Amino acid sequence: MIKKTKSVLTPEMIGKLAEKGINALRLSRKQKQELLTSGLEEIYALHDLQKQNIPLLENAEVEVLMERYFKPALKHAETHRDAIWVKLLEKTVKIFDFGPGWAQGSPAFALRGEAKRPSVTMHKEIGRLTLHLELINRADRLADIRLCLTDDSKRDKTSFEAELLKSERCVESITAKAGEYFVLSRIELGEYTIRVRDNHGEIASFQIRMD
């Protein structure tokens, strides 16, 4: 059996020669030889094809071809993003949605020695650490955000740093020492990102939407 040698003229090269002529490419001696022996037939066929009135493909046909030859790659965006969505009403705060791992309620904010405002609390366990969140309605489309980080091994609040970002720009950055809360007062409603880290690096990053 004789093995057929691979063509030195690719379909892309044939198409460019048919469209722009022989001077469109710098062909090697071997490529020129193949062009003279068999490649010209393909170029003439392309010229004849251009003269034909070929109807456009239907949308359904285009979708089938795109699905067959251009399958979308899997993206990390398919995973559920870590986000919390709350609605601040006149005298209450309601949770609309929250990301995986979060649970409503927080023992860290169960007792506070001050007049209680409408608020919601949540917490999320991250290894031996637990992140506590409280959103307080201050009316006039303003809110307070409180964070607390507890260490299960020490059974007490631990130090951390947190940033509040809006549109990738830092609005405020605060360091909370052991036993303290991270407090952001009178924040305008909107969409934010909060990043929490300790001495070992980032602990959590999540989004908050307050309407």
What key attributes describe this structure?
single chain; 211 residues; alpha+beta; Immunoglobulin-like; 2 domains; six-stranded mixed β-sheet; six-stranded antiparallel β-sheet; 3 helices; 12 strands; 41% strand; elongated
Structural write-up:
With 211 residues, the chain is of the alpha+beta class. It folds into two domains: 44 residues, no CATH class; 135 residues, Immunoglobulin-like (Sandwich), CATH 2.60.40. The protein has three helices and twelve strands, in the order H-H-H-E-E-E-E-E-E-E-E-E-E-E-E. Strands 2-1-12-11-8-9 form a six-stranded mixed beta sheet, with no helix packed on it. Helix 1 crosses helix 2. About 4% of the residues have low confidence.
The average pLDDT value, as a whole number, equals 79
Helix and strand pattern: HHHEEEEEEEEEEEE
- Strand elements, count: 12
Largest sheet: 6 strands, mixed
Rg over alpha carbons: 32 Å
Write the CATH homologous superfamily of the largest domain.
Immunoglobulins
Helix-strand category:
alpha+beta
